[in-house]
Structure formats: C-alpha cells, structure tokens
Specification:
89 residues, flat, 4 helices, RNA-binding
Length: 89
C-alpha cells in the first residue's frame, strides 16, 4: 500500500468522533421544536384524557383534521397553478 493512501487512512481514523459529544443533527432537531399542528394535537389528546374521552377517537379526529388541512393546501396550490396557466395562455 502506498504511503499516501496509508497516511490518508490514519487521518480518517483520527478524525472520527469518539461518541463523547452530541451529534450535530440532534441539536438542529431541538432548535426546530414542534409545529403548531403537533402542539394542537397534543393539547387535544391532553384534554381528552382529562375529560375521560377515548384517546383513539381523538386520534381519529386529529388525523381527519390533518387530512383536511392537506386537502385545503392542495386545493390552494391547484388554484394557483390554474391561475398561472390561464395567464400564460
């Protein structure tokens, strides 16, 4: 094995982390936090638990709300697309 390759491998080995510190990706996740939808879902689950309602029922409501939001977003995007398309023609 040529010396240059051997030295490169030694450098690579030295530069690897030893696991005594947090990974960079976890810090980014912590800074991002939770979205408003996630917070709303947690609050709904907490309220349901407090009131004694079924959690599964509330989870279904949350999924339904999520689908409605996605559908509304897609509708807006389609409207924008067709408006743009009409102006281009």
């Amino acid at each position: 094995m040529p010396r240059a390759v051997f030295r490169g491998r030694i450098r690579k080995r030295k530069s690897k982390p030893n696991g005594n510190f947090k990974r960079r990706g976890t810090l980014k996740r912590e800074k991002r936090g939770k979205t408003q939808e996630q917070l709303d879902a947690e609050i709904m689950l907490y309220q349901a638990e407090k009131e004694g309602r079924d959690k599964e029922e509330v989870k279904l409501e949350i999924e339904k709300m999520k689908r409605e939001r996605e559908k509304a977003k897609l509708d807006e995007e389609m409207d924008e697309y067709f408006k743009k398309r009409e102006t281009d023609v």
